[in-house]
Records
---
Amino acid sequence: MDAGLALRDVARAARITASHLSAIERGTTEASLAVLVSIAQVLGADFALRLYPGTGPRIRDRLQAPMAEALMRTVHPSWKRLVEVAVRHPARGVIDAVFARPAIIVVATEIHSEVRRLEQQLRWGREKAESLPSSESWSLLAGGAARVPIERLLLLRNTRATRTLANEFESTIETTYPATTRAAYQALTDPAMVFPGSAVLWCDLAAGRGRILDRPPRGVSLGR
């Protein structure tokens, strides 16, 4: 309209039919990227498609399932337990597992068999934990309380790569997860213990079955 062009002339120059262009304008059909680029070129416009960073991919780590299963077997029944908890605001994503003592504390848990970009994983974990009140399960987790502390738990697979990462970036990880591994393990397994704050736990995997460690692996000082 701004260029004073007829719909049929734009369609002809873009090598599509006038009816197809009309349907695209009305929003009754989906246009391919090639068609949108062609229409943009005819109109003298730039076309761009951008993917904005979010809070991690929806494709799940294949080793998360046995690690999550091991964690669920380890945590005492006094904790309310949920898996794959979706959050919507301000961050949009899915938290691998959430443990709660309603009205007392909520623990957002991320499970990783490997960590390729540490800073990004730490940021995603923080943003998703802060977004927990937007979850449909929040009223259940919070137990009706107006404010409930949200702590974080990072469960790592015990491998040479993750041990090296933990030692190389010990101060960075410890700033985010300052509590000791042993204290966190005890709080999750003993209902009399108070959860000490955000912490890192470790998981051994063998023959597809996981086992949660009650302390950091040998050679790792993080969380001791």
---
Amino acid sequence: MTERLRRWRLVLGGDADGTGMALDGADAGRDAVLDSLYGAGDRGGAQPAAPRSAGLGGSAPRVARWLGDIRTYFPSSVVRVLQQDAMDRLGLRELLLEPELLDAVQPDVSLVATLVSLGSVIPAHSRETARSVVRQVVEELERRFRQRTVGAVRGALDRATRVRRPRPSDIDWDRTIRANLRHYQPAWNTVIPERLVGFARRHHAVEREVVLCVDQSGSMASSVVYASVFAAVLGSMRSLRTSVVVFDTAVVDLTEKLADPVELLFATQLGGGTDINRAVAYCQGLVTRPADTVMVLLSDLFEGGDRDELVRRLGALVHAGVTVVALLALDDRGAPAYDHNLAHALAALGIVAFACTPDRFPDLMAAAVERRDLSAWAAAEGIVTAAPAS
């Protein structure tokens, strides 16, 4: 019974009057940091109309201690939630401009998105610390996704160029022998190849063009972080010519910054309106070999520009042979808000529209490079796509 009361005491907060149980040790510490954030007025009973008690105050050192305390008392998954609540409820975005606070924060994608959105207003004395925090998260994401992405795309490129009647110099002998083992002739101690497996001659050093067209409106903040990391990984592959274009109501080509995803991120300007048609028009001009091009439009599709012209332009790209993918989000949330009518209009053109988690993005790119049926791929992955309008 004591354990049950202890849990209720931690949930209710305040003092011991409600449960008759006092806290001590680590539980007292947990209660203190929660009370500093949520305050007695938000515990849901006695004072519903009272203002939230900003227990952290305006002192940067005190906030730094609080950020350290929550990492002491709670696991990382809970720390991220508490940090986000502190930013939303107590105005910590302003306080995070102090370097001592940045040193105390648990780095994650949400924090990176916040720092990038602050961007130009970060004072000089905090700028290097902010970049250090962003770089830490970006490098962790690169370690997580680089090998899988490169492996998946390279494998797709190999499969896409494999042919059944290769020239002698293009025969893949290892795969040919494996494919014909059932034709082994014991008397001759050899395999008679009924089917040759090889690769088509590669006339271009660059085998595919990838255009990432990324919506940098505020609602896409986490997606922009992941997209920057994947863009840098794809940009490092010599078999791809990767371009990255970000947009709100303006369009900016950031391809020259692909070598450093941190610089790429800080070159974005999170927030503002959305003109997808203008961005797609620019990206259309980057396409030189339509049949060998994959265009990923990362946007929630809330168009502020010419909607009808956008649909016509995307239809022209599909008709020319470009593989176009409409990603509604590239993050771990799973259920983005998006313009359903525009998503249905794109689906009617054969453009698959769906949200994608970062873990699935390497396989998505592999399927797009091979020009597979992306609707079938999404269905096999259990991903819900926007259906064409009936």
---
Amino acid sequence: MNITLIQQNDIHAQLEAHWEYFWQAGQPLYRRTGGLARAATVVNQIREQTGGACMLVDGGDAIHGTGPAQWTQGAAIVPALNALGVELMTPGNWEFGFGPDILRRRAAELAFPMLACNVFNATSGKLAFAPTAVRTIGGVPVGFAGVTTPIVTQQMPQPFGAGLRMSSGVEQVRQAVRDLRRDQVALVVVLSHMGLPQDLHLAKAVPDIDVLLSAHTHDRLAQPLIVGKTLVIQSGFSGSFLGRLDLTLAKGQAVGHTHSLITLDESIAPDAAMQAAVDESLRPYRSKLAEVVGTTATALHRMRVLESPMDNLITNAYLELTGADVAFSHGWRYGAPVPSGPVTLGDLWQMIPTNPEVFTTTLSGAEIRDRLEESLESVFAADPMQQKGGYVIRTSGISARVRLNNPYGARVQQLEIGGADYQPEAAYTVASAGEQDIQADDKQNSGVHAIDALRRYLAQHAPVNAELTGAKFVVI
């Protein structure tokens, strides 16, 4: 008996084809990929090939990340997900980006359930989502459990997880697997939005998982990772890829598998019905998205852990707007690349869709160094369960020499601010926007939101240059 699992994860509301970043001969290469219409073509082909003995699941971070998603609190994305025929989903951290009440509304609009065994009402202690589901695939009962990252209530803005409590998920997954085994399923599959390091830890801690469909960290796994008997896959982000896992079952267990990471490139013809659904969702916003607001000489992307051109543009814009000494931006991973050439308003909204207001504050040199140490720990913590996701905080005005293998508090070996050695007691003006874990009582709002700051900067610099400096975080 053969069954097939199809995975998409972290599409971040990218409904259409877009530029994607690849590597070739050690150099970046940009190709047009993705789009739910191409995904539908592949999914429909697999459904036909397998005689329906397959299932499409979504790993979360689907309804947040672009202008249309932000302007409609995710509602513009729901019809397209339904049309694609997703059958189960676990919520990602950005599903909570409009707050739990809106998420409950979006979940009710979906034609399929969300699963999460580690999200609770903080008052009643009741689960906020169903923890498990059993589906028959090709005549085989398959048990699914969902788990998501607890950073929603640990690290993200308070409104994201208002009224919720979230656990690390390990004990809840262990119990969910026991429950599913008692239901005598032939296969246990965990849909996780924990992140790849955490999921490998989870697979070790709960060895009775057959398949772990990982998400959150945007990894492109060309082949499964195997932990004990558990197969772990993850399939990129931005809807540029699908993961296909074909499983051979015998005597109630998986005895063989094949896997492919499918790139949704221009060789795949878009499905007409799915394209019509996408067009219907995006029609009200197309003219706004297409407005050209500047040009860039630098290809903008977020494919580097320590520094990215996309965030160099953002932090440079904050510095110019405020005249601050230092600028910080989030270490976000999402956002489709923008090759050199025109930059549209739609590009800006998928770079920083929350569009927070720019502010300034005053921090001592010691406080800035501590902030860098905290960010490095959140990315490189030796304990994978202490890694919080995202990349290192983005900066302008700073140059640091770091040892990533050192423990928390000892990674920043040398720090310069404004080209000079930092002074721990000196006061520096810092510009940022949104929630940056900056604890200060003197935040001064600029009256300018991030996208307007970017528009101003693009208007004043034609074209902009946001090349990697290689000096913001130098690994020694």
